[in-house]
User: Fold these one by one.
Assistant:
Number 1:
Amino acid sequence: MSKVTKPNIKESKFIETLQYSFTKDELQDKAQIMAEQANLKAELEDQKKTAMSDFKAQIDKCEADFTLAAKHYRAGWMMRPVECIKRLNYDSGMVEFIRTDTNEVYKSRQMNEDERNIPLPMDEPGKDAPVQ
């Protein structure tokens, strides 16, 4: 009988990164992932554009409000609608324009011809007019 000799070999397991070729099913999975990610990227880019546009509009409004407030601060005044009274002063022959918020006469002028005509007192509705 012959004697079996063992070769002088030592083996050990380890991990090394090597090239791997995908199967057809794995390639289809990769294609599906690429399509989904391309769609997601496009959606995210649209959302980013919308958000950036919204933020730009908010920033622009902030800047406009700041600029207007600075203009008013420098000037110390602004134009705005104010309720006023037009007073016909028949004794002085003047028309006066009065602000109701400050009771200030902000403008006056001479009455024109139509304004100089003093209106006649009107009868109250429902009452008999006096006989003259």
Note: The chain is about 40% helix and 15% strand.
Number 2:
Amino acid sequence: MNKEKVVCTTVVAALFIAGSCFSALEALAQTSSRRNLIFVGTVREDVGRLYRFVGSSATFNGNARWDTCPQGTNLIGRDFQSNGFWLCASPDIANSGTFYFGNVVRDRGFYWEISGGRAMAAGEARWDTCWEGRLRGRLFQSNGFWICQP
């Protein structure tokens, strides 16, 4: 193998490893960061489940009692009923404006405006509807949800 080919291959391998390490570090920073953090609690048939957003993906965080927010987050709104929800956010975004939330129950999306600790029903909506802000993420299933962040 000629010397130029070895150098080129080594440089490409080093860049690939550096890129992979950077991606891994970025993902780790997002998961351990206490900023821009959102938890969604869903209630389905009176059982609470908590999900944490890492980037735009919702990951199951375990069963939870209604209105229970993890340490370092604040309750920003809820719909207290059998197929309801609650939202928790880190202090840096909790009061940043109106959040919009789509609560999907048996494949039907119900839209909510969340602001000032109150959740106001806004009717039915299609997946990923955001009247304002940006789509933060979703749990795409027949009993899922999506959230729009100011």
Note: Confidence is low (pLDDT under 50) at residues 5-31.
Number 3:
Amino acid sequence: MSEPAPLRLFVAVAPPARARADLAAALEPLRQAPGAPRWGDPARWHLTLLFLGAVPSALLPGLTGAVTDAVAPTPPATLRLAGAGRFGSRRRPQVCWAGVDGDVAVLTALAARLAAAARGLGLPVEDRPFRPHLTLGRWHPRRPADGDLPDRLAGYRGPDWPLAEVTLVRSSAGRHEVLSSVARRTPSARS
């Protein structure tokens, strides 16, 4: 009997609907701009904390537990989508992204704990600095591209929102399926 196919996974934070709607409204005037990227669906916008790629399905229970343990010590945090930029050069842009403001150090520490947890399970993790961002769209390499387009969102500042939940997501055939969701624990009130 053959092994089940590996799962393509990532760990993410999804901004709440009101934050995505606010950014989508700010982005609307750019959607049809010449040289614009292929824009992503706002319903799928997220901040990737850790990209795992192909994970053997047998590791899923352990990974789910490791994600829960990594999220547990996360202190309260307030985030907001702010500004924009690109990956790639101005002449050959690849990704248009929105930045993140607020308690970014909390998000960065969480991403580091998630990476350590994945390494502890023997999963390969990219060894590069965490750069919190939300991918808005991608430019096709053989089409005209306006690498200055993100500059038009430089002054954008979205609404604040609390870091409330982290999800383990499966990506398959361009679709995302949340496999588990971990709420950030809030301290219980003592009487």
Note: The chain has a mean pLDDT of 91.
Number 4:
Amino acid sequence: MSSAALVMDSAGAGDRQRGLASGTYMSGLDIGKIIGPVVGGVSVDALGYEPTFLLAGLGIPLVFFTYYGWLKRRRPRDAPAG
């Protein structure tokens, strides 16, 4: 779990940010383990192997940058309004 430790270490100074980073990381791992094989299997049955890997190669960065943009636009609760 050294990667989880790195996420928690780089999350910032506050315990709240550290908890958010840890929870997001662990949730992503668990959701990926559950949904990934199901979506991959359905996609292979419907489209074949090549399009499935192409979609995964494009989908993973899309999800990452969407989440990153959401985090950047969100105003922390600790920050002053204005």
Note: The two ends are 39 Å apart (CA to CA).
